[in-house]
Write a structure and sequence with these properties.
The chain has 263 residues and is mainly α. It has eight helices and two strands, in the order ααααββαααα.
């Protein structure tokens, strides 16, 4: 009779995969559910959908990391060099995603500062931007001011320190080099999915607002030369991050593998 591994052990051995995929699946289900909230406008519903999907992806990856089976052998403490977080994240996409996170925060601060303020409608502040079109005051929107960007700020405030803590835990914890690499890349991909999807929507919102009339002027040129390429870059990051969350080894890097094998 063949000696099969117990079901519980086989389940736990693949629990990290199930958790990552479940996080994405729950996000896919939760996003359409939020789109049915009829008491808020369409643009705000999209913000909630994107934010919920990103947070579900991050939660799934963090749960997967917590369920990952680690080696039970004694941990070797001697090493040629200390483990650093930057050596375990994607060498090219890691810095790019970090830069996108910083640029997203800066962009949202700028849009919040430039948004129109209505002292008589506090909860509607930050939905449009006031401009002068051929000498006539006008408003452009929807504008990603505080009204639309508050969920994004909240998601970043929760996910960023949590993912940083998870990366440090992975790097300095037990496990083989390849296992640590896979876990670190999955966390990076989940955070990148949250950041790039949020920035993609904010950039598209700005682009639509600035080009919906013929009086955008220099801002219209800025949209063409800056915001459209930025949208394409974020779209690429969304795809890369999604693949990384699903299968970290699908975006393998030979240079990274060689550096980890030297540990």
């Amino acid at each position: 009779m063949l000696d099969a591994a117990p079901f519980q052990h086989r389940f736990l051995d693949h629990a990290n995969y199930y958790a990552r995929w479940s996080g994405l699946a729950i996000g896919i289900v939760a996003a359409p559910a939020l789109s049915t909230l009829r008491h808020i406008e369409f643009e705000q519903r999209l913000v909630f959908c994107i934010t919920a999907f990103g947070l579900c992806a991050v939660a799934g990856v963090l749960l997967a990391d917590a369920l990952t089976l680690l080696p039970q052998d004694p941990v070797r403490t001697a090493s040629l060099a200390p483990r650093l977080v930057r050596d375990h994240v994607p060498p090219r996409m890691g810095p790019l995603i970090a830069l996108q996170g910083v640029s997203l925060a800066v962009l949202l601060v700028i849009t919040a500062a430039t948004a129109s303020v209505d002292p008589h409608r506090i909860f509607s502040t930050g939905k449009v931007i006031a401009v002068t079109c051929y000498g006539v005051p006008a408003t452009l929107g929807p504008w990603p001011g505080m009204y639309y960007s508050l969920p994004t700020f909240g998601a970043l405030a929760i996910a960023t320190p949590t993912c940083m803590w998870a990366l440090r835990r992975i790097v300095h914890g037990p496990g083989g080099a390849q296992q640590r690499r896979d876990r670190a890349w999955a966390v990076t991909g989940a955070w990148g999915l949250l950041v790039s999807s949020q920035q993609l929507y904010a950039v598209l919102m700005i682009s639509v607002s600035l080009t919906e009339t013929g009086c955008a002027g220099a801002m219209g040129a800025l949209t063409f030369w800056v915001f459209y390429p930025l949208a394409l870059l974020n779209l690429f990051t969304v795809v890369w991050s999604l693949i990384t969350v699903v299968a970290p080894r699908a975006v393998d890097d030979d240079a990274v593998r060689g550096s980890l094998d030297d540990e």
